[in-house]
Q: What sequence folds into this?
DNA sequence: AATCATGATTTGCG
DNA sequence: CGCAAATCATGATT
């Protein structure tokens, strides 16, 4: 509106100046199409005419202007204009000196900074990417997505900066032009420096609103990019083998109560480089799918139970130093061969210590309330935190104690197949294990027995 | 391409 | 809010 008007006059001024200053327009158009002389002649004629008109009108305008400036009534007119202006008092009207920070703009700025779009060239960006990666879970396997994400982010950043610079430049240019124009006009009408300042302020505000739009759309683009890359559902990745291993180990060793506490979830999440909610998801899925048909998971259960058992057995062996048994030379892992994986005893140390103390303290039966969870709770260093009694399974702990040997019952819960329960799940009351498989499990039962005897003696 | 496996989400309950 | 169950959606396998 106003600006366009100003712009037009501004263009007029600059053009007239350029022409008046002796800049020839002809040369730039002269050297094209040199083959057709007649036509060139025509063009030349037209050009001459145009130039003539321009010169003429310019001179005319200039003369008029000069005449006006030199008119004897001019000072009087000027003073009248000043008076009117002062009376109407529209000189410094609506000057927003307060420079409102605009919370929304601040928000956008902060976000862009956090996303690494603005701010330091690479540092912030990679940090944001790293955070995104952490949220996504998984360590090294999704580095491809990282680079993809980073590339796209860099692209956005590039566009953002280019546009921002363009706006900045355009703003400055325009401001300069307007200021020149106003200064020029101040000779014929009263314009105070304050007014020029005000005008500049208006221009800046206009441009900053455009900038905000840019920031807004950039933010939007980043959000879309983020959601696209972080929406795990769209790009589902299987957990790493090791993570599944850890989770399964926990699950099967806590089969009687596979509900990890918040702390346990955090621990598992850390171990598996996944998020806590992913751990929760995993256990949710696992529980439901295990329960749905246990037979399908029997093999897996045996495997992990065996693994735990052997792990424990090894630990026990190490602790006891084959001092007291020797009564059962049968090979400990007879019934279940560990397939291929080796299990890391990263916490063997603590386990050994604990087992040692257990054994040295008492060789009899341990009346630990939830011995079933014992062996897995050991490595977690915070011992009892995993033990959460399920109100429904009232019969369980005692049952294990009936067994007499806490350790054996502990790590071979799955192996035993819960012989103490009625086959078809005595608890239809909604508790875990209402459909526990009967002792069908079994084949490794002897193995459990062997270990049992191993350790108990 | 069918099918299964599996992680994530939605829905409904207490 | 945490869970179970149903469901969706994608990855892997055949």
A:
């Amino acid at each position: 509106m106003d600006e366009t008007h100003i712009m037009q006059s501004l263009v007029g001024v600059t053009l007239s100046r350029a022409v008046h200053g002796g800049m020839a327009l002809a040369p730039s158009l002269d050297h094209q199409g040199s083959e057709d002389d007649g036509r060139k002649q025509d063009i030349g004629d037209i050009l001459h005419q145009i130039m003539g008109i321009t010169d003429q009108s310019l001179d005319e305008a200039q003369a008029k202007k000069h005449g006006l400036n030199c008119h004897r009534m001019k000072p009087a007119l000027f003073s009248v204009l000043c008076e009117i202006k002062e009376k109407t008092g529209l000189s410094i009207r609506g000057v927003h000196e307060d420079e409102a920070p605009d919370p929304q703009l601040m928000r956008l700025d902060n976000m862009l900074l956090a996303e690494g779009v603005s701010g330091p060239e690479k540092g912030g960006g990679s940090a944001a990417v790293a955070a995104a990666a952490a949220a996504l879970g998984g360590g090294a396997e999704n580095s491809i997505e990282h680079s993809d994400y980073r590339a796209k982010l860099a692209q956005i950043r590039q566009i953002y900066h280019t546009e921002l610079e363009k706006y900045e430049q355009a703003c400055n240019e325009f401001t300069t032009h307007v200021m020149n124009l106003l200064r020029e006009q101040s000779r014929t009408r009263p314009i105070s420096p304050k007014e020029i300042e005000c005008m500049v302020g208006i221009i800046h505000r206009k441009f900053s609103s455009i900038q905000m739009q840019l920031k807004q759309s950039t933010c939007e683009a980043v959000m879309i990019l983020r959601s696209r890359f972080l929406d795990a559902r769209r790009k589902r990745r299987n957990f790493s083998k090791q993570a599944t291993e850890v989770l399964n180990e926990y699950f099967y060793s806590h089969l009687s109560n596979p509900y990890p506490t918040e702390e346990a979830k955090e621990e598992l999440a850390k171990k598996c480089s996944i998020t806590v909610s992913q751990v929760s998801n995993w256990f949710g899925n696992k529980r439901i799918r295990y329960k749905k048909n246990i037979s399908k998971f029997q093999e897996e259960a045996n495997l992990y139970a065996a693994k735990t058992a052997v792990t424990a057995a090894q630990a026990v062996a190490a602790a006891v130093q084959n001092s007291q048994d020797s009564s059962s030379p049968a090979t400990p892992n007879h019934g279940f061969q560990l397939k291929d994986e080796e299990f890391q005893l990263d916490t063997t140390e603590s386990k050994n210590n604990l087992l040692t103390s257990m054994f040295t303290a008492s060789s009899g039966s341990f009346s630990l309330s939830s011995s079933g969870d014992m062996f897995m709770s050991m490595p977690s260093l915070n011992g009892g935190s995993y033990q959460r009694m399920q109100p429904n399974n009232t019969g369980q702990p005692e049952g294990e104690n009936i067994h007499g040997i806490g350790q054996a019952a502990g790590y071979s819960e799955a192996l035993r197949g819960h012989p103490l329960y009625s086959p078809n799940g005595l608890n239809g009351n909604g508790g875990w294990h209402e459909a526990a498989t009967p002792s069908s499990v079994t084949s490794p039962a002897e193995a459990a027995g062997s270990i049992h005897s191993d350790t108990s003696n």
Notes: Chain A has 18 helices and no strands. Residues 241-318 of chain A form a domain with the Arc Repressor Mutant, subunit A fold (CATH 1.10.10.60). The mean pLDDT of chain A is 63. The two ends of chain A are 97 Å apart (CA to CA).
